[in-house]
Amino acid sequence: MQNSTREQIITAADDLFYRQGFEQTSFANIAEAVGISRGNFYYHFKTKDEILKTVIQRRLANTRDMLDQWEAESSGPVERIRSFVRILIGNRGKIMRHGCPVGTLCAELAKLEHLQRDAANEVMTLFRTWLHRQFVALGHEADADALAMHLLARSQGIALVANAYQDSSFVDAEVEQLLDWLDACVAQSTHAE
Amino acid sequence: MQNSTREQIITAADDLFYRQGFEQTSFANIAEAVGISRGNFYYHFKTKDEILKTVIQRRLANTRDMLDQWEAESSGPVERIRSFVRILIGNRGKIMRHGCPVGTLCAELAKLEHLQRDAANEVMTLFRTWLHRQFVALGHEADADALAMHLLARSQGIALVANAYQDSSFVDAEVEQLLDWLDACVAQSTHAE
DNA sequence: TAAAGCATAGGACGATCGTCCTATTCGGTC
DNA sequence: GACCGAATAGGACGATCGTCCTATGCTTTA
């Protein structure tokens, strides 16, 4: 059931919500993208809230998988945090075109005061708590959450400005600074021991 | 003609675009906020593009005034840049509720691929070039634009995350870090002489 | 083959959108 | 007091929105 209609709808909605925004994407858009009628769409999802909730759940699951994979692949917390920073490089093109999928959805749902706002924030919280854990493993028990929030904010700012100016060299320069900042964090933690 | 209907419309639209977003704000919303009929509204602004363009022009003018005032009031570039950073403190409440007015509009119009996207970006560019000038005055001729962009991105990131989590202590902590970063910039430039 | 249920198509519905048109009112001028 | 342009009100318009209903296939099961 990988290519079931329901899965196709979720995939198309996920993509359109990212590229056009949630409010700007209509049932007709999604149905057209999948190649089905609006009536059939309604058979699978009764309300727009429901499809949004499902898309967010998928993003949560995908994010958890990605973070788990980094946890399994990378040898230590420093390399794991570097994996996070390097999303900005790997998704450079998409980010310049449409911004960060996490940040833009949170910002839009906040402005709409939408019911699913907290659910969208949870995707960001997934990164927040994961980063928190990595900084704790790095020896920053006391300020682990502050460091995680700092890194989140830096990434979001880079994505937003890169999206506005469509500037890829800016992303590269900022990522390098972030990696330097991370090295300084490591040095500070080993120094404190 | 300070309180003319046209001025009232622009003020109401500016506020509603900020709080609800551009796309989510209808002519009816603005007309109701001003207390006039939709027909009268159309007498002053023929299209939604036109009202958006006017609102952005007002924001550009207001931003220029603010930057000019900082230029006149503050004694040197460091204190001027500090004024920029402190917007995050002064507008803490509004930013937590609705995000940064500059960044959220740029992000929304980018996602809509709206005609006025470049105009919205210009507000951000106003800060960018102003900050650029301050960093040049600080002795950072070579990397003035990179520093300006860095500061822009940091501010935008702080605003976005603060908006998502409605966390004011996070804003305070990050602003303090920004001011430290600025001091380090000053030290580096005086050291290089 | 008949029955049953899932999946799909197509359109109707009320509401709201941006836009536009037409009266009507108001304020100042000969 | 007649006149005229600016300002305002109210509603009509086509389109699109989310939602919902119904009829028609398609597939499986007895």
TrEMBL record, chains A, B:
PROSITE patterns named in the record: HTH_TETR_2
Tree of life domain: Bacteria
InterPro entries tied to this protein: Homeodomain-like_sf, HTH_TetR, Tet_transcr_reg_TetR-rel_C_sf, YxaF_TetR_C
Domain HTH tetR-type positions: 3-63
Key words, A-Z: DNA-binding, Transcription, Transcription regulation
DNA-binding residues: 26-45
Entry keyword annotation includes Nucleotidyltransferase: no
Protein name, as recorded: TetR/AcrR family transcriptional regulator
